[in-house]
Amino acid sequence: MNRILVIGAAGMIGRKLLQKLAQGGSLGASRIAHATLHDVVAPQPPPGAPFQVRSVASDLSLEGEADKLVAERPGVIFHLAAVVSGEAEADFEKGYRVNLDGTRQLFEAIRRVGAGYKPRVVFTSSIAVFGAPFPGAIGDEFLSAPLTSYGTQKAMAELLLSDYTRRGFFDGIGIRLPTVCVRPGKPNRAASGFFSGIIREPLNGQEAVLPVSEDVRHWHASPRAAVGFLLHAAALAGERIGPRRNLTMPGLSVTIAEQIAALRRVAGDASARLIRREPDPAIMRIVKGWPQNFDAQRARELGFRADASFEEIIKIYIEEEL
Fold it and tell me: Model confidence over 110-155: pLDDT tens digits?
């Protein structure tokens, strides 16, 4: 039986991950005995979970908070918590405190347990660790040179994860998520939020604002695919991953125009007409430095799988949220 810890459990991906775990009650070949859910607000336990659940609300970046979370020696730790891209750019201190200091506090807390404790740590990184200029498709050998504070914070955490794994303090894997789309609920402060908004709002009969041009190309995966990445990463043998512990996840490279065309095919012209073009120079400046396409060969060879088409991504949102 296994204990797990999910940090960032109140977020959208955290909630969907817990729903999936609650359905089967297992992680890999192990039954889950207990799950600790952590966030800055108390996460809601997944309905009908066949394991014990404890919810904790605190600030991970504060001294001693991470030590409390790892005191029960969870075998698998999902670290999903982060200040999102737009907010990390707008609030420099908060971005570094949460995205870097909080991560370091967690890694140090695990190291201090000692006594042979070596959990699997699954860390959600981001394609924002890469910066322009880009090749046509970014391969596994491309350098990490971010052009945003968020990307820099994620890249620094990736380096820490690799080094703490190399030193034997834990068994880590960092997964660079594509932009997750279509995100349910209200928009957050991520600069990438409009990628979901131009699909989600029209499907709900509401107007959506498009702040960039339709030729903008980006890398996407559905929330369902993102949860699949996390579950696969948690069960993947460390010797298969090798010494390079951070992986770019597979996804779909599509333009805004292709997104809108897929929306039109799935939901009709009336939905597509609800998108209002309103250029935003600040968002355009951030998006200009983002990667557009990847060749995620290592991840595919290790068994990670993404969505087949953008229509599939839209249909997943309709199925799960509408």
Answer: 999 989 999 999 999 999 999 989 999 999 999 999 989 999 999 9
Pairing type for strands 30-39 and 217-221 reads: unpaired
CA atoms of 159 and 20, how far apart (whole Å): 29
Alpha-carbon distance 179 to 192, whole Å? 7
Q: With H, G, I as helix, E, B as strand and everything else as coil, classify residue 171.
A: strand
* pLDDT given at position 203: 97
Ranges assigned E (strand) in the chain: 2-7, 26-27, 30-39, 52-57, 76-79, 120-126, 171-177, 179-180, 208-210, 217-221, 246-248, 252-255, 275-277
86 pLDDT tier (thresholds 50, 70, 90):
confident
- Fold entry, domain 2-177+223-248: Rossmann fold (3.40.50)
pLDDT at 189 exceeding the cut of 80: no
DSSP letter for each residue of 41-72:
SPPPPPTT-SSEEEEEE--TTSTTHHHHHHTT
Task: Answer yes or no: CATH 1.10.3720.10 is held by domain 193-218+252-292+307-321.
Answer: no
For the chain, the domains span 2-177+223-248, 193-218+252-292+307-321
Which one, of 64, 76, 69, lies nearest residue 54 by Cα? 69
Q: Characterize the bridge pairing of strands 52-57 and 30-39.
A: parallel
Catalytic, 150? Answer: yes
Tokens of 306: 């993404």
Q: Beta strand pairing status for 26-27 and 30-39?
A: antiparallel
User: What are 20-36's pLDDT values in tens digits?
Assistant: 999 999 998 899 999 99
Q: How many other C-beta atoms are found inside a 10 Å radius of the C-beta of residue 288?
A: 11
| C-alpha 80, offset from chain centre | 6
Catalytic residue among 96, 150, 164, 317: 150
d(CA 306, CA 180): 11
Round to whole Å and give the CA distance between 198 and 204: 11
Q: How far, rounded to the nearest angstrom, does the alpha carbon of residue 104 sit from its chain's CA centroid?
A: 18
